[in-house]
Design brief:
This protein is mainly α and about 100 residues long. The protein has helices at about 10-20, 25-45, 50-60, 60-70, 80-85. The radius of gyration is 18 Å and the shape is elongated. The relative contact order is 0.12.
Length: about 100
């Protein structure tokens, strides 16, 4: 490896780039949504919960569950995520950093 490489937090330069481009907040929100969708899908898989069963637990349609689990769908509310977490025996925690 070259001695010219600066030492530091590997992601800090990418974070700075996103901020400079005015994309940091939207990229962070999209990343959080992707992680939550993945975690919900994994919890459902681990517990053997189908999308139909998840829809029943949430008193909604299977297509709503599809949107909930779609990492690219931005129209999911915090309330919907909290209800989905509860439906798989988990809790949604949000904090300001």
């Amino acid at each position: 490896m070259s001695e010219d490489i600066e030492k530091g937090h590997p992601g800090q330069y990418f974070d700075e780039f996103l901020r400079e481009q005015g994309m940091y907040e939207s990229a962070t929100a999209q990343a959080v949504k992707r992680v939550l969708a993945f975690q919900l899908a994994e919890a459902m898989k681990t517990q053997g919960i189908s999308k139909v069963e998840m829809a029943r637990r949430l008193s909604t349609s299977r297509s709503q569950v599809d949107r909930l689990l779609d990492p690219g769908h931005e129209g999911v509310t915090v309330g919907a995520l909290a209800r989905a977490a509860k439906a798989v025996g988990r809790e949604l925690r949000i904090e300001l950093a």
